[in-house]
Design goal:
314 residues, mainly alpha, disordered N terminus, disordered C terminus, Phosphatase PAP2 family protein
Amino acid sequence: MPQTETPGTEVALRPRPRWWTELPLILLVYGCYSAGRLLARGDVAGAVDHGLALLRIEKALHLNAEHPLNRLFTREAWLGVPADFWYASLHYLVTPAILVWLFRARAPHYRAARTWLLASTFIGLIGFTLLPTCPPRLLDASHGFVDTMAQYSSYGWWGGEASAPRGMGGMTNQYAAMPSLHVGWALWCGVLLWRHGGTRLTKVLGVVYPLVTAIVVMGTANHYFLDAVAGVAVMGVGYLLAPPLMRAVERLWTRMARPVAPAASGSGSPIVSAGCQTSAGERIPRQRKSRLEPAAGPDASATDAGEGAPTPAR
């Protein structure tokens, strides 16, 4: 025989995510991200110093892959133009597309993936604020970099000053290079495609997308190699923080949704007492004495005779 739970003792479970609660949350985080990028701009001298420091470290470690890639993208338009489109577009298209796909087709994995993404984005925002960094394309030309976004701006919708649409470059923080969330978010997409895609094609895309994105951000002179490394590190920290964050949210949810325990029987309730007895003044149907029964004699009161007994004349 199947067992049933006693009403009022069920464990409160989190409901399935709903788009009308998820969408405002994601928009709020992205709004904070954008606002933080805007607030972080201003210290141009410090940003340039940080960018040059990264460049010196890379040269000392022989890690400065940006120069050869940037020269290649500058010389070969058939590489530079698609790279600029990749940089200006996919960051804002693929990431939300993966979120929607998880929400609709891989719901059990959605919460963990979303928490990982949001936690990493907040960490990146802290990096933008504490360490404004001038990207290679904005350094003096003597450092050997060409801004491919400006060189090929006639091919796309972006302006020469940023990857934003023409006329809106002044609304972005161009010194938010460290860490590279282009690389970080691409890594997030790649991991989820590899884990949950289910086909060989999605696994290939899961590897190709973050690798090509890392090459693109360096070849277009938007990020240093160490920016890409920092983007990977930020996603790693966000990945480690996601489980405790989810547990904290679950505890909060359980506390808020905890049902009220029912009152124990026999605890002195004024309505029903223990066993089959009834409280004073209460009668159970079919057990009341009818005034037509012999036991209801002339001396029986109206109370003993039941509710239907006539009131004695006074």
